[in-house]
Amino acid sequence: MTQVITPPVLLRASAPAATLLAKLGPLGELPGTWMGRGFNLISLPDFQNQHSFRLKLNATQETLMFTSIGAPIPNRGFFQNDIFFVGLHYFQQISDAFTSGGLHLETGMWLHLPETTAPAQKTSIVRLSTIPHGDSLLARGYATTNNGFSPPFAPADTLPFTLDPQTGARNDVTDQQYLAPFNNAQLPPGIPARSQFDPGLVLSEVLHNEFQAGQKMDQAHVIQVDARPVGGINDTPVQPQTEDVGGIVNIPFVRVNANASSFSARFFIETMQDTDGRQYLQLQYIQIVILEFENLLWPHISVGTLVKQ
Question: How much is the pTM?
Answer without folding.
Answer: 0.91
